[in-house]
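Reopening: structure tokens for the S-adenosylmethionine complex, inputs below.
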Amino acid sequence: MSEGFDAGWLALREPHDARARSAAIAGALIATLPARPRLLDLGAGSGSLFRWLAPRIYRAQAWTLFDADAGLIEAAFETIALWAEALGLKVTTPGRALLVHAPGGAWRVEARQGDLAEIGGLPLAGHHAVVNSALCDLVSRPWLAALSARLSVPFYAALIADGRVRWRPHLPADRALAAAFRRDQGRDKGLGPALGHRAPAAAIELFEARGFCVLSAPSDWRIGPDQTAMLSAILHGDADAACRADPRHRARHAAWRQARMLHGGRGRLSLRLGHRDVLAIPR
Ligand SMILES: C[S@@+](CC[C@H](N)C(=O)[O-])C[C@H]1O[C@@H](n2cnc3c(N)ncnc32)[C@H](O)[C@@H]1O
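Re-run output (same inputs, fresh job):
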């Protein structure tokens, strides 16, 4: 893994992710699963997808959280335990697993630390679905093609960035900034040149070519003027990325940052950011 992800950022985005994911696509995934499904969550981070999807599956289930970052895996176990206890559910920790005793059956969580780059080493066997959230725009086309060639179970990819950005109020400089940001998104994050905003179309094409039935739906973030921490994180992240990709126009990107901070400070800033959820089901 060449790039770390901050647990604070994952926590900040979690409620926005939860609101944005398509319930219809998740429902279609759940309809394919057997009585006691086992799911493999690639790039699971601090377990945000588990907290969203496990209650929807409801029945007894087992998850393997796969991530390179030992700190995030540890955070996932802690956060899941606190979240479950806040819901009034008992949590036990037999061996290296965590069990959430839910009314519909136990939710078992285990983790595997490893590098997604070693695709042959992924623990695909024994799982009824391979799932992920906010991962597919980080991976390369060859990586996704290699994964699709190995899968014979449903593949669910939530929150794949698709490049659509609509800041309000509109600024003429939005366009240049978004273009520079998209260039930065294509950087190699350890899995080859990243697909970035081309990821949703690539995932659909690659899995259809393998004979999967592919469903997809938008899962946009809609971030209102009162969500100041999230707006601030995104605007600074976008401006930093634009400066990295397009250092010649650093002054222009700095002016954009200043203007957006001013709009945010006055409670006038909002953002709609495009994502897609994709589900590929083997025929
Ligand atoms: C954008 S975060 C998403 C985390 C989580 N799925 C969520 O939605 O909050 C991407 C995750 O992929 C993991 N990751 C990135 N590259 C990886 C690699 N080469 N091997 C394993 N994990 C990786 C990161 O550690 C991080 O947890």
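DSSP finds nine helices and ten strands in the chain. The longest strand covers residues 155-168. Marking as resolved unless the reporter disagrees.
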